[in-house]
Amino acid sequence: MEGFIESAIRNTTQLPEDMGATSNDKIRILVVGVGGGGCNTVHRLSNMGIKSAETIAVNTDASHLKIVNAQKRLLIGSSITRGLGAGGYPEVAAKCAEVSKDKLREAIGSAELVFLCAGMGGGTGTGASPVIAEMAKEQGAIVVSVVTYPFNLERARLKKADWGLEELRKKSDTVVVIDNNRLTGYVPNLPINQAFQIADEITARAVKGIADTIMLPSLINLDFADVRSIMGDAGVAVISMGEGKGNNKVEDAAKSAVEHPLLDVDLTGAKGALIHINGSPQLTLGEATTIGERITAKFADNANVIWGARHDAAIGDAVTVTAIMTGLTSKFQVGAKKEEPERNLAHDIESQL
């Protein structure tokens, strides 16, 4: 694995002295929110003032779509659902995406990187996301799907979510799964509605952090070719975040990233990672590399790690870390053992139509 210092030197020499334009200026990044959960993430990103990516909200529910803050809002399948939603049926949503493929393809255009955000277990996000992911890949984009997985108590949604994940894995380069069950350890005392907002916030922060480090002038920029090498055909990935403040901010940021409650896997032998570090203008190269080295300490020797760092005066004397890690054993991988046997969801849905 290339050392962080060597990587830093390589990346820094590619930056202009005034840290003006980046080598990725012509890269087009899209964030596509599909269904209620995905649209909520896009809404949050837009309210954050994201400038590094375009936002598109896609839904079968016209009333929900109207209140979403996004650069583009696409109602799909109105001839099928009359704008009333997919009724919780993924296959209805898939058909809605198919009949609206022309305007979806036009919206995706020539984007090089597409972040597809959705909640698994419902209708539109589960059913339309794989169709949209396939369209984006056919048009040459790297597709990174960032999705939430339902609570174990949501039995019917779990079956749909497993079916949707299987389909989405086939159509995406990388699928990042945020398991709602882990929220109980992350924010156990928050009201339910606020806990769900935390999942949106995590997704939005991760997407914005990576997109910003690619597109905006940074201490160390992520080169898009490197992003492609990490995220292209990476399979199931996991996301983690860390934060540190005060005198021990470097140690705390790294420690909280590798011990994050959402991270329920062993990092030993990880094969790749995309790491974004955000700090005050006083953040030094040494501090950034220390964080990166500690996060990747258990990674495989040949792990492909790329990273970027940005200065942000708005966060004060704090350091935040977002990491997407690949090549790990996850229960969401193809062939992972399930707690109980699955039925054929497609057959279940068709029998109810």
Which properties best describe this structure?
single chain; 353 residues; alpha/beta; ten-stranded mixed sheet; 14 helices; globular
| Largest sheet data | 10 strands, mixed
In which range does the helix fraction lie?
Answer: 40-55%
Strand-residue proportion: 15-25%
Radius of gyration (CA) equals: 20 Å
The computed structural class is alpha/beta
CATH class of the domain at 29-212: Alpha Beta
Series of H and E elements: HEHEHEHHHEHEHEHHHEHEHEEH
Contiguous low-pLDDT stretches (5 residues minimum) are 4-21, 334-353
Which descriptor suits the 3D outline? globular
Spatially, the strands of the biggest sheet line up as 3-2-1-4-5-6-7-10-8-9
Say how many strands there are.
10
**What is the fold-level CATH name, i.e. the topology of the domain at 29-212?**
Rossmann fold
Rounded average pLDDT: 85
Q: How would you classify the quaternary structure?
A: single chain
In the CATH hierarchy, what is the architecture of the domain at 29-212 at level 2?
Answer: 3-Layer(aba) Sandwich
Q: Quickly count the helices.
A: 14
CATH superfamily of the domain at 29-212: Tubulin/FtsZ, GTPase domain
Distance between the termini: 52 Å
